[in-house]
């Protein structure tokens, strides 16, 4: 990415005789040990086998440290992602939606409830947040044999009809599900996962990016355009444990903010408990559960750990607050 060789400035032309004489008079450089040796001119193509092996081992070790430690998440989430304008998320989400092989289900018995809970949570979020004004929230049901729900940049959320028919959520549980997916959107988890998987190559590309128009893009805008070109990947990302905990925290917060609409944050615990039992084959046909839950387990890991974390979160609330929230149904 960076050229460490010094810049060679233009010099006045010299004649061949003078150049040859200068070369002939060039003396070897003295070493620290009294011997003399010529100026090093080692190139990768002239490296010995041992040098090549050391170089390869160093490269592998660098990538291992980057990708197998929190380093890649820190670089992606703390440094790169904030540079990508929020306004670009809408276009990314719409492009990604076109790449997904799902049809909306308009005549579903779940549609009225989904619309109600989505509107309640979105109103609560917008009343307490000015940062995401460019987001256009679009929550709908899609036809799929998989038990899954997914979020795309800019406010697109889709829930499969199979998930709804399998878990038969209460109003509170459905609100918890929507709130969780809103958390993925707000924290921009899809973009982060794509950036993380391509971070090295994309940093290089972003520095030299040219989209053939007359506008001069910033580094962040260039990353945003590269993300948009990978729209097909955005709906297929496996979220990390950190992502899931963040999305749960946002769902919890939205349910708390929407308490005036009759919601209880314990609904999130109830939702995850249903999904956990299905993952363990304790509800419905075991073969059916195994096949239809594959996408959910792949994209939403660590369900049991998250349930335990919610238990601790509920216990940490003051008694009077738990009593007040407990009056709302789960």
General description of the model:
The structure is a single chain. The protein has 330 residues and is mainly α. The chain is 58% helix and 5% strand. The chain has helices at residues 16-24, 49-68, 71-80, 88-99, 111-127, 161-167, 171-186, 189-207, 219-229, 231-234, 241-257, 266-279, 286-292, 294-299, 303-316, 319-325, and strands spanning 29-30, 36-37, 138-142, 149-152, 156-160. A hairpin with a 3-residue loop joins β4 and β5. α7 (171-186) crosses α12 and α8 packs across α9. The longest helix is centred in the N-terminal third of the chain and has 20 residues, at 49-68. The relative contact order is 0.11.
User: Major β-sheet, in short?
Assistant: 3 strands, mixed
Helix-and-strand structural type: mainly alpha
Strand-residue proportion: 5-15%
Overall, the morphology is globular
Q: Mean pLDDT, nearest integer?
A: 75
Map the helices and strands.
Elements: H1 16-24, E1 29-30, E2 36-37, H2 49-68, H3 71-80, H4 88-99, H5 111-127, E3 138-142, E4 149-152, E5 156-160, H6 161-167, H7 171-186, H8 189-207, H9 219-229, H10 231-234, H11 241-257, H12 266-279, H13 286-292, H14 294-299, H15 303-316, H16 319-325
Parallel strand pairs: 3-5
Antiparallel strand pairs: 1-2, 4-5
């Amino acid at each position: 990415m960076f050229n460490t060789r010094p810049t060679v400035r233009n010099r006045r032309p010299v004649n061949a005789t003078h150049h040859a004489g200068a070369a002939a008079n060039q003396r070897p450089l003295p070493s620290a040990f009294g011997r003399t040796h010529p100026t090093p001119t080692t190139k990768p193509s002239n490296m010995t086998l041992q040098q090549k092996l050391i170089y390869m081992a160093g490269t592998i070790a660098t990538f291992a440290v980057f990708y197998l430690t929190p380093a890649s998440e820190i670089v992606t989430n703390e440094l790169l992602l904030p540079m990508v304008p929020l306004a670009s998320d809408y276009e990314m989400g719409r492009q990604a939606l076109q790449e997904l092989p799902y049809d909306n289900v308009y005549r579903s018995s779940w549609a009225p409830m989904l619309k109600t809970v989505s509107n309640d949570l979105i109103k609560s979020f917008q009343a307490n947040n000015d940062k995401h004004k460019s987001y256009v929230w679009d929550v709908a049901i899609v036809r799929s044999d998989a038990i899954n729900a997914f979020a795309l940049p800019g406010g697109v959320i889709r829930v499969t009809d199979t998930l709804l028919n399998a878990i038969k959520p209460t109003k509170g549980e459905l609100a918890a599900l929507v709130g969780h997916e809103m958390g993925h959107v707000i924290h921009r988890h899809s973009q982060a996962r794509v950036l993380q998987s391509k971070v090295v190559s994309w940093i290089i590309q972003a520095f030299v990016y040219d989209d053939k128009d007359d506008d001069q893009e910033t580094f962040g805008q260039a990353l945003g355009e590269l993300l948009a070109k990978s729209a097909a990947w955005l709906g297929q990302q496996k979220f990390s444990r950190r992502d899931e905990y963040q999305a749960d925290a946002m769902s919890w917060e939205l349910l708390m903010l929407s308490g005036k609409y009759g919601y209880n944050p314990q609904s999130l615990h109830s939702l995850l408990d249903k999904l956990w039992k299905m993952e363990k084959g304790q509800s419905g046909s075991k073969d059916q559960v195994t096949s239809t839950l594959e996408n959910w387990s792949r994209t939403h890991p660590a369900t049991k750990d998250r349930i335990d974390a919610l238990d601790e979160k509920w216990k940490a609330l003051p008694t009077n607050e738990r009593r007040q929230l407990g009056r709302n149904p789960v």
